[in-house]
Amino acid sequence: MTEPSTSERRGTSAAGPAADLAPSGRTETISDGVFAIAITLLVLNLHVPGAVEQKDAGGALQALVDEWPAYLSYLATFLTVALVWMNHHALFTHIRYVDQKLQWINIAILLGICLAPFPNALVADALRTGLSSEAAKAAAGAYGLVFMLMTLPWIFVWERLARRPELLRPPYTAAWARRERVRGALGAAVYACGIGIAWISPLLAMGLFLLLALFYAVTARGFAPDHEMRAIDV
Amino acid sequence: MTEPSTSERRGTSAAGPAADLAPSGRTETISDGVFAIAITLLVLNLHVPGAVEQKDAGGALQALVDEWPAYLSYLATFLTVALVWMNHHALFTHIRYVDQKLQWINIAILLGICLAPFPNALVADALRTGLSSEAAKAAAGAYGLVFMLMTLPWIFVWERLARRPELLRPPYTAAWARRERVRGALGAAVYACGIGIAWISPLLAMGLFLLLALFYAVTARGFAPDHEMRAIDV
Amino acid sequence: MTEPSTSERRGTSAAGPAADLAPSGRTETISDGVFAIAITLLVLNLHVPGAVEQKDAGGALQALVDEWPAYLSYLATFLTVALVWMNHHALFTHIRYVDQKLQWINIAILLGICLAPFPNALVADALRTGLSSEAAKAAAGAYGLVFMLMTLPWIFVWERLARRPELLRPPYTAAWARRERVRGALGAAVYACGIGIAWISPLLAMGLFLLLALFYAVTARGFAPDHEMRAIDV
Amino acid sequence: MTEPSTSERRGTSAAGPAADLAPSGRTETISDGVFAIAITLLVLNLHVPGAVEQKDAGGALQALVDEWPAYLSYLATFLTVALVWMNHHALFTHIRYVDQKLQWINIAILLGICLAPFPNALVADALRTGLSSEAAKAAAGAYGLVFMLMTLPWIFVWERLARRPELLRPPYTAAWARRERVRGALGAAVYACGIGIAWISPLLAMGLFLLLALFYAVTARGFAPDHEMRAIDV
Asked: D55 and C134: CB-CB below 8 Å?
């Protein structure tokens, strides 16, 4: 959490920022809350009513194992939300102030995160009817659509930061924010492909979404500025 | 989050506030928690049991699309709660201390926020029975009533701040708090109209509540004091 | 939230506290989280399946109104949890450090808070079967029992603080902590009476629990030390 | 919560840490949120539909008491999550910075915590079919498996801290982190035994998991460094 002085916080100090800016602290707090809740609510989609009805332990275990598509969907969604949280965390280490527009863009990001348990439940339920069932195709397609929409507000984040670089912590600049837009657009493109793949194999699409989260995780630069940034740092 | 010194926090320093005051920090923390949870729990109202039973992907997709009134209700409620959070955030940038009464008024605000998923579920369920069904009229009316009651504690917030201006951060004054009461009363009036409209068309009423959230969002002054405030600032 | 210096936080500074003490900050954070979630989850007990089945708006409204015992139970539980949070907040303004034992006593307090939605759901469900039904008597009795158990860890809080006054912020002392034990025991006694009353009238018992929350709220001294404390202050 | 200076937070100060490090503050915040939510969601597994159907209060009370295996499971899971939170809290008092890898290891810890309500629900549901039913054996075995997997990321925490001791607060060193790995492995071993015991008596296994939480609680050194650490301190 940023720790602005009281005068920074009120945004009214003489040498301070424009009067419509607020420090980013409380925006980070509520965002963390939403991420934490959304990622924890996913567990409510896991339930195995059939296990209780089994007469022998082997059958009950089998009923638990048979739920593996729900576990796959859970894992893909969990890791994707965790990844978005990591990106959100990294983003706000570069942001010093929020204005009204950036607040609403952040709420659009949180809308996507809050929605995540819904397509997850759709896919988990549909995969129970068969791994390539028609219902599973529609559900995985809807999953891809919701997560594609989820990437869009990120493009506006960079757009806003490029237009109003005083929101950024130095040495980050408008030029840096413009370069970052590409990453956001890339995510949207991959999810669009996923929607197409869902029509062929819902399971393959869910696997792709899981891989995407892992790929982003591995390639994320985290808190470290890249080579270009190092140049700006100097 | 405000960052009072330890002596400010205990409210016992010689030059500090009256002994029954506490800094607003932890009140903001729990409020953020409640907002974050209420806004995330809304997703539990979204479920499409019919989609799984479909034999073809087109039918499953259609079942998903047919849920649009639930999505509309979700969006209206999500944006309204987000808007109230934005107002709460803006309010507390002006507040330095809380007393026992302001704490209870804040709990009344949180009561409304905690309740929000309930009328949202009522409307989403009722709209499934028909867009102008009698049940939908009653549900949209109840929705308007709960959200109207939700605006009332805000009037008492300004009332309390007007009576005890030492709770405010300078340069905000009792006169400023008195002027703000009007905004609260306006919200209550609009929701009262919405209850009437719900009796004609539940869908129109829900659209109005969505528009109201967007209107407030656009006209919100956010953290910037208005022209009058600038005068006080000088 | 307390704001200890880094050395205070690590509890290793030369002039600092004993090595098994930690500042109370993160304990307050997770407690606030639990309070916020428990108070928000209560809404999941509100649902009116009958309203959707009604053919006319009047009948649908009637179905909503008929749920009033559930609303009463909701309100009593909401206000009681809010009240406990207020007391918890007031308590931690007097606490500077936590040790292992105080942490576990705090977890016992949180156990009660986490459980609160359960007896609330029992009472709301049982009152639907009749305001003085046998099931309602058992449910209201169970409600009283859970809330009585909820008051017990508070006695241990004061006990622990009396034994280890270095956990307290000066000028609060072991003598003060000993005096506070009485308040905790009083709450347990009132809930014990409530269990008896539940056997005569469940509704009366729920009304009593609601009144108890309001009474404590009115009589709470909040952050202000009482007359005795003022004497200690000087 | 740690309170790094702004320059520490950005991780770019000249004398500061390597550029890929971030202070641990926001990681603690989201972790606290996940712990608080997971521990509170457990209550959703408690429900006694049979109590409402009883005609006399005695029968309704009996129905409540008959749920005791669900209460036992609730208590074991609640205390285990609380214990993991205590350990997490103690761990982060020793950590100053997080890097990308430690963040992902922490997310793996949180994955286990988020999952906890699922095996808890399995066991509570299965014990209703009989205390040594085949379904209960499978459920308690699954419970042990999930909690065993939950202990694994802790080994990687110590591994990471041993490899990169600059993440630690002095005087904690790589040698200390290596010694701590043993504790994590011990937990995994106990849960593995529990899986075996579940095949003989599910109830005994659940009792063991409850005892394990209590044992760890009693033996935990909390924030106090042990004798070896005192030596390092000097």
From this structure: yes
